[in-house]
């Protein structure tokens, strides 16, 4: 049985409160469905999750061009006018995405994201979908 999204949201609060400049946090499945969010609005989180599915696929394709790479994406960082976007692998079939403003400390957010993934990575795993059924 799949856990309800609300059960995951509280886990993201510490990341938001521990890093100045964080605007929105989204946990998503590899197929682009939102698992959890903190900050921002639900529709925005759904759009971020959908966009991340393509981005992680693109990153994996680029990784295959790096000699001795296993082809798995670990982290993508995009600098945007007004802020940054971070996407990190967060367990089998799950990803952690964070939007920040320009004031964020890049080293701090990267370290805190890694810490979060290590501490609760097993909770951020998205089970594979089979024929559209949930159980």
Describe the protein.
The protein is of the alpha+beta class. It has a single domain, classed as Dynein light chain 2a, cytoplasmic (Beta-Lactamase, 2-Layer Sandwich). It is built from 4 helices and 5 strands, in the order H-H-E-E-H-E-E-E-H. It has helices at 6-9, 13-18, 42-63, 106-120; strands at 22-29, 34-38, 75-80, 83-89, 94-101. A 5-stranded antiparallel β-sheet has the order 2-1-5-4-3, with helices on both faces. The termini are close together. 25% of the residues are buried. The mean pLDDT is 84.
Descriptive terms for the model:
single chain, Roadblock/LAMTOR2_dom, alpha+beta, globular, 5-stranded antiparallel β-sheet, Beta-Lactamase, 25% strand, Dynein regulation protein LC7, 35% helix, 4 helices, 135 residues
Strand-helix topology:
Elements (H helix, E strand, L loop, with lengths): L5 H4 L3 H6 L3 E8 L4 E5 L3 H22 L11 E6 L2 E7 L4 E8 L4 H15 L15
Antiparallel strand pairs: 1-2, 1-5, 3-4, 4-5
